[in-house]
Structure formats: structure tokens, C-alpha cells
Amino acid sequence: MTLYFYQATDKAGKYVEGSVDASDPKLAVRKIRGLNYLPIKVSEKKTSGSIGLNLKIPGFDFSPKVSSKALLAATQQLATLVSSGLTLDKSLAISIKISEGDAIKNTLTDIRNKVQGGSTLADALAQHPAVFSKLYINMVRAGEAGGVLGAILLRLSDFLEKNQEFKNTVRSASIYPFFLMLVGLGAVIVIFTVVLPKFADIFEELGQLPLPTLILLGISDFLQSFWWAIIFGIVGLVIAFNLYLKNEEGKLKWDTMILKLPLVGSLIRKIETARFSLTLSTLLNSGVPILNALLIVRAILENSVMAKSLENLHKGLKGGKGISNPLQKAGIFPPMAIHMITVGEETGSLDQMLEKVSQTYEKEVELAVKGLISLIEPLMILIMAMVIGFIVIAILMAVFSINDIPL
User: Fold this and answer.
1) What tens digit of pLDDT does each residue of 367-399 get?
2) Closest listed residue to residue 152, CA positions, set 162, 164, 138
3) How far apart are CA 309 and CA 299, in angstroms?
4) Which residue in 342, 393, 406, 388 sits closest to 189, CA to CA?
5) Which among 405, 398, 60, 24 is positioned nearest to 200, based on CA atoms?
């Protein structure tokens, strides 16, 4: 049996804490409910110590940021509390008490203070744009207007959870290739800056060296002498590239080029289609008007070309046209997604069909990422093999040239 620590409320809304013995978390939840408590958080009981260090330097912000994981947990807790019938003020108070991390506690405390001062929850959330997105704020605003805040928060927590899983899928698939590239690059740098210089003194005594060896030694000398220039050059390129992307025209040109790439372009379309469908479906289900929903969706799409295509969609809806025709004319979104949206529009179940589109393309993205990674891995291994092979051949050619030296 395992000891589980729980945080819950009773039927009167009073906050309670305690622990129960259970073989698994599900049994622990059942036991807590058997005590007539509404469980908010259940976890294995652990003890840990931590040391906090808070640095404050004028002009620099070292304050902890609210992570997406902390935001998801806070949203789930608040949704559970509000749905159980507790007042918003009481729900916020309990959420502040049970939340982990100073950043989310401070944010919720400020929100509660504003709500107590007469502000709506949506307006209070809007004061923290770095934590709560436009989508989050507008969904809460729609929930407050319709008197269904609890249901909206539950739907919002589901959306955040799906979005987090989607990001984790892409991120986890990219870890190994990135690690492989980092190790390979590190090995090459060590060879050029540590190993080759030891051979340089020996090779200098040989006189005339083969061309590959001269190239190898030249690269090694350059890395040793101008490593600082290379670092500054890379930093400069990164800064220049970021400035280029901040320019609207530059961002548009870059995103257009990305969409035209053979494998990457198709993957980006699928990712953005899944994001577009899931977000629009969630907003429509939450009671947000479709014109406002499209503006929010456009703001969260990362590819500016696909986001710009929604302008015509917005104009078409204002003029009484549907969604599917403008999307089809734009030629940006995948044909299957447009076909499914057309069916949903014709049958009056657009929100449900959008949800199916998002589920379909989330699976396609997962498969596409795995396929792309399966191509990148052997390609990186091949490139590293060619680099290492060139180094070995250049050294061997210099060694074999010793036989050509007249005695």
C-alpha cells in the first residue's frame, strides 16, 4: 500500500488536507470521495527540502516565470473548484493555497485581488499577457458572459492538456537528433583544436604535404586563431536573422520559403492545420463568436503565410460567405482538411468536424515527425562519417608521403 496525500474540499466548500492508504491513485480518489470530500489534488506523499534564492538587480528581471505545466495544473484546479459550486473568490483562494511555485501563486493572488476589487476574471487575466493567451482570456470572457465559467474552464484545461501533449510529442522526437548533432559537432571541434595541432609539428618536418592535409591543417589553424571571430559571427547571424523575422515582409518571405520545402513544408502545414482546427473548435464550443474566434486563431498561428490566409476568410464571413470556399481558394491548408470542414459546414456541425480535423492531423504530425527524424538520423551519421573520413584520409596521406621524402 502507498500513502497518498490529498487536497480537497468538503460539501460546504471548506478546504481540507489529509492522507489515505491505497494501492493506486484511482483507489485513493475513491477513498477520498467516500469521505464526502471533493478531491482537487492527489499525489504520493513525499518530503523534500528546497533553498530559494531571489536576486533583484535594477534593470534585470530574474523573477520566476509561470510554466505551461503550472498553468495547466492551476486551470484544472480552478475548473474543478468552480464546477463544484464554489464562488470564484473561494476557488481562487484555494487554488493559491495548493498551487506549487511562487510565480503561479503570485499571479493568482494578483488576479484574486483584482476580482475582489470588482474586476471580471477575464479583465484580471488580461493584466498578465505573458501568462494568459488571448485564447484563454476570450474563452473565460465568454464563460462569464454565458454563466458557464466552470464548463469553460474544464474545456480550457482539456485544450491546454492536448496542446501540451502535442508539443511534447514534437519535442521528444527532436531530442535524439539534436543530441546526435551536438555530440558529432563536439567531436569534430576536439579533433581540429586538440588532436590535429599535435600532428602539425610532425607534418611541418615533412616539407611538401598533400592538398587534403594542407586543407585540414589550415582549418585547424583558423579555428585555433579565430575561434572568437566564429563565435561573434554566429551570434551576429542569429541576431540579424531574428531582426529579419521581426520585419513583417521578411517573416512572410521566410515562411513562404519554408512552406515550399519538400518535407518540412508539408509538416508545417499539418502542424498549423491541427492548431487552427483545435483552437477554432474550442472557441466555438465555448460560445465565442466565429469572427472573434478567427482573429484569435490568426494570432496564434506561427506561420505568417497561413495566418494571412485567414484575412480573406474573415472578410468572406463578414460578407455572408462560408469558411470552406475562402480556405480552398487560398490553397494553403491541406485538401483533406478543407473537405472535412466543408462537410461540417454543410451539416451544421462545424465545431465537431473541426475537432475531428485536429485529431486527424495531430496523428499525421506525429507520423510525419517520426518519418522526418528517421531520415535526419542516417543523414547526420553520413555527414559525420564523411567529415571523420576526410580527416583520417588527410592524415594517412601525409603519413604515406613520408616514403616519397628523399633520404
Assistant:
1) 887 788 778 778 888 888 888 888 888 888 877
2) 138
3) 12
4) 388
5) 398
